[in-house]
Amino acid sequence: MRYLSILLILLVSALSPVKGQNKTAAEKDSLYVKSSKDTILLQKSYAAKYSPRRALLYAAVLPGLGQIYNKKYWKLPLVYGGFIAIGYGMNFYQEIYDEYKGQLYENLELNLGENDQNPESGYTTAQLRSIVDRSRRERDFMVILMGGMYLLQIIDAHVDAHLKEFDLNPDLKVSIQPTVQQDALIGRQTGVSLILKF
Predict the structure, then answer these.
(1) 125-163 vs 52-61: helix axis angle to the nearest 10?
(2) Are 176 and 193 in contact (CB under 8 A)?
(3) What pTM was estimated for this model as a whole?
(4) Boundaries of every domain in the chain
(5) Per residue in 155-168, pLDDT tens?
(6) Is 54 within 8 Å of 60 (Cβ atoms)?
(7) Pairing of strands 187-197, 39-43
(8) How is the chain classified by DSSP, letter by letter?
């Protein structure tokens, strides 16, 4: 009974309307920072216009649409090239599967043994079974790769929309420079150093 009452209270509180402060559209997109002297108005950043949820939804509906939403047009050939390559592999193994499966059925209809060779095809029943199983396995692997490619482009669109909000420090630099050190114990040493500036 106690759990039922708690559930009822949670349900009523979730369904009851909640009213907050009434804000205009400009106030919803702004952030006010009050200082002792004056008030500073900071506008919504350019990156906040990109919604990761929307990018994920677009990529799920049509592959590549999330990358277009994020304005990463250079990723489109990678997405569609991957789908075309995997689709070509699926079609290739499906054709092999269909061709050799027909020859296997022909051997079985002729009541040939596992090691008896068909004079028309030149393959034994055992060889044809092996070819059919292998081509089916490869085709199924291509189907799994297609699903993985679909999920990968969805994840890419989602993460890329999140990274639009990431502010990169313009002073961040990585450089490689030659170094020479003089040590009393070892002597002169030369080398290359990797310098990170934050």
Answers:
(1) 150
(2) yes
(3) 0.60
(4) 52-163
(5) 999 999 988 877 66
(6) no
(7) unpaired
(8) -HHHHHHHHHHHHHHS--------HHHHTEEEEE-SS-EEEEEPPSGGGS-HHHHHHHHHHSTTHHHHHTT-GGGHHHHHHHHHHHHHHHHHHHHHHHHHHHHHHHHHHTT--TTPBPTTT--BHHHHHHHHHHHHHHHHHHHHHHHHHHHHHHHHHHHHHHHTTPPPPTT-EEEEEEEEEEETTTEEEEEEEEEEE-
